[in-house]
Amino acid sequence: MDIRQSLAAQAYQPLRQTTQPTETPDGGAFTQAVAGFAETVAQGEAQARAAMTTGADPHSLVTALAQTELAVETAVTIRDRVVEAYQEILRMPV
User: Fold this and answer.
1) Is 70 exposed, middle or buried (0-12, 13-18, 19+ CB in 10 A)?
2) Residue pair 77/53 in contact by the 8 Å Cβ criterion
3) Which pLDDT score, from 0 to 100, does residue 82 have?
4) CA-CA distance, 59 to 62, in Å (whole number)?
């Protein structure tokens, strides 16, 4: 084994831990956003079910559906931006 390879490996070893991905203790912002989205959609579905079966308050149904619509539009916008960024990366010259 060449001494240069050995020295390079020794210098690289401490940096290797720095480049490893780490999990945030709170689960990360993206995970929280997805959980919030799923909760909002579930609440909208629950309100719609309650309105159809028990005749619940129509005002709360409209509010829940508006919140669900906003959450879906936000998710679609984020998805579109991620796809756009990916396509931009693919267009970069190598």
Assistant:
1) exposed
2) no
3) 94
4) 5
